[in-house]
């Protein structure tokens, strides 16, 4: 020992000694009272061996609130004498004061580390959001006659949802919706590269199944293990409505037709799982009036406070409403809010891409419309089916309703289409009589029924100075039943839900409400007359 | 226009009151409908079924009247159900969400078959 002590520098570097959490020495130190003489211990402990090897003689456990928070390790005294009982008392006093101080320092350190970790997570969140925003389309292409809308609502943790719409050669349009498993920056990066690969290959390959197969092969080498991408890709010809699509394990798109809502099936494995995948490709033809919806899991798997899932059946049912793409998304998100309630936090990103064919462009009116076919195919000339006036007396809206119905009888429209138009005409006429002409019987309401291109238009004109119809507030049945909103106020709401378009205009002849019904896509109920 | 466009008749079986509406449901129906509801309550009705099978027209003011009656029935805890709507007006009941607050049956028979169940 003498030689060892003399060889040691005056201020030796304390040796690093690791003590395993299950080492029996820890339990001993925890309950020890004061300084412990290492040489006199007889415990089978690797740490004890390590202490001895490193020349530690005396250990003073630092215990605060019954918790062992550190050890004061002492080598042999420089005077080469044994530690006296005075020494030990001094050390014990020191330890008693040092322990809580060390504990406080530890807590401060832990808290700083936590704050840094929180900041790191926040930072990562911001980066993920930034990437995501960077790679989502800033605006969607305009397609004449089509309505295209998208909604992306990130969850707090930012998942890997993405969508894209881009123009292709020959006037076609590529539509993508996808979801990267996992969240945060890694998911955002994979999303960004998937999107870039799709954009790069789409114009050259055209075929959706080939594009997905190619992106799968390119993605595979770089994608982190256990991460993959589900993705549906469709190529639409906006002139003919023809659409080819392939699906890499994403939710099946919904197509709303007059006969209901159908799923567009096409099988294929998610991207980034296995090499040399092939993807089914199918074709369907959209008709005017139909809507397509692509959607992510965030909607389907949203839960309410009772733990119930939003689910496919609910979405499919909601999709049945004949709405424009923008209104459809609004309607779905409102319903989702109502379903989840205010207290439930959004778990995953929600992405919706909706497409609605509002009107065929006048270049391709192929089907004759009964006896009107010849003229209306000519497109430029509107065909007037009725033009009459009524007096502004309550109840006359039913006369208008019946006359309009009579005037369109030759079109052989389906009963539900006619019923909807009847309700819209009746409501619009009531509005003209009551609000436009203020129930003054001598003031006329003029009604014109016209076919322009492939649209049936009913124009209802009153003499009102200021009869802009606008919903002061949308009717909300919950509020009405709770007595927080008048039970009335359904007129405009009904009109909007009954026809494909509603327009208002004003000129020197008065205020006109125009109700429009699309005739194309309804032609099944229109056998040639 | 004829003066009597709307009519309502009350049939009562134990605690179920059936109101047979006919003609057009509009703001003019308000008084008669609420009077029939008063009579139904006086007769001890706990549940009310509105039968629309003879109704050929409902407009927005009629919807408002139904909303008003529904609010009343809910306030005093009497379930309201409807039957006999045409598919068009059934759609309107769905769009306006009235169908969320009233059980909708295709016809009286199916409504009565469900009479043991709490309606509304």
Key descriptive features of the protein:
heterodimer, A: 529 residues, alpha+beta, Beta-Lactamase, Phosphatase 2c, domain 1, Heat Shock Protein 90, 3 domains, 5-stranded antiparallel sheet, 18 strands, 23% strand, disordered N terminus, disordered C terminus, B: 120 residues, alpha/beta, Transcription Regulator spoIIAA, 5-stranded mixed sheet, 4 helices, 5 strands, globular
Poorly predicted runs of chain A are 1-6, 360-380, 523-529
Number of domains of chain B: 1
* CATH topology value of chain B: Transcription Regulator spoIIAA
Indicate the overall shape of chain A: elongated
- Major beta sheet, strand line-up of chain B: 1-2-3-4-5
- The average pLDDT score of chain A comes to 85
Q: Please, what is the CATH homologous superfamily of chain B?
A: STAS domain
* Number of self-contained structural domains of chain A: 3
The CATH topology of the largest domain in chain A comes to: Phosphatase 2c, domain 1
At the first level of CATH, the class of the largest domain in chain A is Alpha Beta
- For this structure, the quaternary state is heterodimer
| Element string of chain B (H = helix, E = strand) | EEHEHEHEH
Indicate the CATH class of chain B: Alpha Beta
Secondary-structure blueprint:
The complex is a heterodimer of chains A (529) and B (120).
Chain A: H1 2-7, H2 24-31, E1 36-37, H3 46-53, E2 58-64, E3 67-74, H4 85-134, E4 146-153, E5 160-167, E6 173-180, H5 184-205, H6 208-219, E7 229-236, E8 242-248, E9 254-257, E10 260-263, E11 282-285, E12 291-295, H7 297-300, H8 312-318, H9 325-340, E13 350-357, H10 373-377, E14 383-391, H11 396-407, H12 415-436, E15 444-452, E16 455-462, H13 477-481, H14 491-498, E17 501-507, E18 510-518
Antiparallel strand pairs in A: 1-2, 2-3, 4-13, 5-6, 6-7, 7-8, 8-11, 9-10, 9-12, 12-13, 14-15, 15-16, 16-18, 17-18
Helix pairs in contact in A: 4-5, 5-6, 11-12, 12-14
Chain B: E1 6-13, E2 16-25, H1 30-42, E3 47-58, H2 60-75, E4 80-83, H3 87-95, E5 103-105, H4 108-113
Parallel strand pairs in B: 2-3, 3-4, 4-5
Antiparallel strand pairs in B: 1-2
